[in-house]
Amino acid sequence: MKLNLVDSVYYAVITMATVGYGDYTPHTGIQKIFATTLAIGGVALLAFVFNIMLTNFQDKMSKYSQGAKKMKAITGMKDYYIICGLGRVGKVVFNELNQRNQNVIIIEKDKEKCKTIEESQNVVIINDDAIEDDLIAKLAGEKCQSVIICTGDDVNNVFIVLTIRETNPDAWIVTRASKLDNIKRLRKAGADKIVSPEIIGGEDLYYESTRPHILRITVKHEVNHIYDEFKTIVKHGCTLENIEYHLPGIETPLIREIKTMKLHEGRKFQDRIDTHKEYRIALENLYRTVNLVHSHLISGPDKATLNKLLKDLEKEEEVIGVNLTNREIAEITSKEIKHG
C-alpha cells in the first residue's frame, strides 16, 4: 500500500484489534502511535478481564463438580464417622478408624493438611471451615456413627457442637478440649464425651467415639477354641481390640493388646501354637491360672452387628457376662476359687 512504517503499524493494529476508524481519524504520526498503543492496551485489558472471569467460572464449576462427587460418595456410604480438624490428634483418630476399614469424612479448612491424606472409597476430604458451613449439621444425621471434633480451638469446638446439636439431638459427639477449664462449657454445649489430650491421647479419643459400638464380653473356654472364636469375630466385620485375663479374685486384669480384624493374623497365631510346644504350654498355664476366664474388648460397625456376634458366641462358648465391671468379674472368679 506504499505506507510508511508508522502508518503500516497503525493500520495493521487497528484492523487486528477490530477497532475500526471511527468518526475521528488520526493524521499525524504521534496521533497514530497513540491510537495504536490505546488499541493494544484496550484489547489486552479486555483479554485480562475475560480471563479472570473465565478462570473464576472454571474454579467455581470445578469446585461444584468436586463437591457433587464428594456428596455422591457420601450418599453411597452405609455409615461413616466425621472428623473435624486434621491436626496431630485428628490424624491419630483417622489412623485408628482407617485401620478398621471405617468410612471417614474429614472436614479441614487448611488445604495443605488435606493433601496429607489420600482420598479413597472409604475416605472423603472436605476442604472447608466447619464453623462457617452448615454442611456438618446436614452430615451428622442417622448415618453418622460419631462426630469427632479435633480442632485445637475450644471456642470453635463449642460452636461446632452447638451447630450439630441444634439439628441433630441424637448425634454422638466427641470433642477435644485443649484446656481443662473448657470441659464444662463443652458439656453444656451438648458434647457427649470430652477428651483432653493432656490426660489421654488420640487412641482413647477413638475409643470414646465408638463407645456405643464396643462390646466387652467375658467368656470361658480352652486354648483350642481361640482360633474358632476369632473367626467368628472377623466374620461379623468386628475388631478384637484386646484380651483381658482375670486372675481369680483380683480386680485389675492382665491386658494383652490385639487390635486386629484380619483373619490371616489369627491363623498365624494358631500356627504358632501348633508348631511351638513351649508356647502352647505357656498359654495353657496362663489359662489354667485364670480358670479359663477372660474378656474380649470388641469393636464393631454398629450395635446390631455386635448383637449378632454375641448370639453366635453364646452358641459356641460359655459367656459369663457382657460389659461387666472388673469388680463384678472379680466376685465371679472369687466364687470359682471357693467352689474349687
Distance between the termini: 121 Å
Q: N-to-C SSE series? A: HHEHEHEHEHEHEHEHEEHHEHEH
Widest sheet, order of strands: 3-2-1-4-5-6
Helix content: 40-55%
Number of strands: 11
CATH architecture of the largest domain: 3-Layer(aba) Sandwich
Main beta sheet, described?
6 strands, parallel
Number of domains: 3
CATH fold category name of the largest domain: Rossmann fold
**Helix segment count?**
13
Oligomer: single chain
Structural class: alpha/beta
Describe the structure.
The model has no long low-confidence stretch (mean pLDDT 85). The protein is built from 13 helices and eleven strands. It has 340 residues and is of the alpha/beta class. It has helices at 5-16, 29-75, 88-99, 111-114, 135-139, 154-167, 183-189, 202-209, 226-235, 263-275, 277-289, 303-316, 326-339, and strands at residues 80-84, 104-108, 123-127, 144-149, 173-176, 193-195, 214-220, 239-245, 254-260, 293-299, 318-322. The chain has three domains: 5-54; 77-209, NAD(P)-binding Rossmann-like Domain (Rossmann fold, 3-Layer(aba) Sandwich), CATH 3.40.50.720; 213-339, 2-Layer Sandwich (Histidine-containing Protein, Chain: A). The protein starts with a helix and ends with a helix. A six-stranded parallel sheet has the order 3-2-1-4-5-6, with helices on both faces.
